[in-house]
Design brief:
about 350 residues; five-stranded mixed beta sheet; about 40% helix; alpha+beta; single chain; globular; binds zinc ion
């Protein structure tokens, strides 16, 4: 019935622990897919979470969108994030990235997302006027309290309502819904693909050795992933695509278009996919390589500073964590990634904590 290779296969997509995956899979009804699909409002919420994570900066970490694990229960799935060396940064990602930001024309965040319970490193969230639920894990309580306080202060300053516990839509959410109804409709139509991608997010990590992953969205229906590789760690497009489309754990994506320069020795490629049959939504997948050894070393420094695990850093850069940047002759010498990360964290704590 439930063989070890099946458990291992599923874990490549979800990042679940071995015992956790075994337990979850053993409770699935006969004939259920290994990674069940969410329906209705639940799929909408998950598609919105993926969209919000793709739109918020989550670079300079070896975890895809800072996520370590997704436990794909049919209802109330669990997303576990990595605190890494910067738990305040993670708390800000959730506070500012996932919750709506207020204004009438502000696309950021998820309208109607509300906290149901927070504590013990977990935040249970739900969507107003629906049964859609999600558990966010891995956010240290102290960091979360700080982020919540900062958002409340900002809301006061700009005369807005912080959405975390607000009863009913905030004035900003209401105004947005009036003004931009078609956005919500497009998001809803393409949310099945978003939810399916979120539930398999870890295949982007176990199926490719990228140095960095950046996200983006387009036209309200496209989910975009931009993967940057060290020259020596290039993963062939079709290897990752095979994983993404795997018959047991993947998604039945349809390749629509490919713009690929690999045959000419260049590595800046882009592949577009349509969602499974009749489902709206697109996946926009980009593959690029960095420019030489000193750029890879710079990523190494940034990943080390941000607290990615050293075995992951070796895997994606080919060098031990923190290996020094030795510039190639002719390099512009402007390597500012670590300085940038330091400035971002200093801005969060102007008192120098
Ligand atoms: Zn290519
Ligand atoms: Zn250099």
């Amino acid at each position: 019935m439930l063989s070890d290779p099946t458990i291992d296969l599923c874990r490549r997509y979800t990042g679940e622990t071995w015992a956790g995956a075994k337990e979850r899979l053993s409770q699935l009804p006969q004939g259920s897919p290994l990674i069940p699909a969410a329906q209705g409002d639940q799929a909408f919420l998950e598609g919105q979470v993926l969209r919000a994570l793709l739109e918020h900066p989550t670079t300079y970490t070896t975890r895809p969108l800072r996520v370590v694990r997704v436990i794909p229960y049919e209802t109330r799935p669990v997303i576990r994030f990595a605190a890494d060396a910067d738990p305040e940064g993670l708390a800000d990602l959730i506070a500012w990235g996932l919750f709506s930001a207020g204004g009438r024309d502000d696309l950021r965040g998820i309208r109607g997302l509300r906290i149901q319970e927070a504590g013990h490193g977990r935040i249970d969230v739900g969507l107003l006027e629906s049964d859609a639920r999600l558990r966010l894990e891995g956010v240290p309580d102290a960091a979360w309290r700080g982020a919540e306080a900062r958002r409340h202060q900002a809301a006061l300053k700009f005369g807005e309502a912080a959405s975390f516990h607000h009863r009913g839509p905030t004035p900003g959410e209401h105004a947005f819904a009036m003004e931009h109804r078609w956005f919500e409709e497009s998001w809803r139509e393409s949310s099945g693909l978003g939810s399916a991608l979120l539930r398999r997010l870890l295949i982007f990590r176990s199926g490719a050795d990228w140095l960095d992953m950046a996200g983006f969205t387009k036209h309200a229906r496209s989910y975009g992933f931009r993967l940057t590789f060290a020259e020596s760690r290039w993963t062939a497009h079709d290897t990752l695509i095979e994983h993404l489309c795997h018959p047991a754990c993947g998604i039945a994506l349809n390749e629509d278009m490919r713009s690929c320069a690999c045959a000419f020795g260049e590595r800046s490629c882009r592949i577009w996919f349509d969602g499974p049959e009749h489902a709206a939504g697109r996946l926009d997948l980009q593959f690029c390589t960095d420019r030489g050894d000193c750029e890879t070393a710079e990523y190494n420094q940034a990943l080390t500073y941000a607290g990615s695990p050293s075995e992951e850093i070796i895997r994606v850069t080919g060098h031990p964590a923190g290996a020094a940047v030795v510039c190639d002759p002719g390099c512009h010498g402007r390597h500012g990634k670590v300085g940038f990360l330091r400035r971002v964290s200093e801005r969060r704590h102007p008192d120098g904590r």
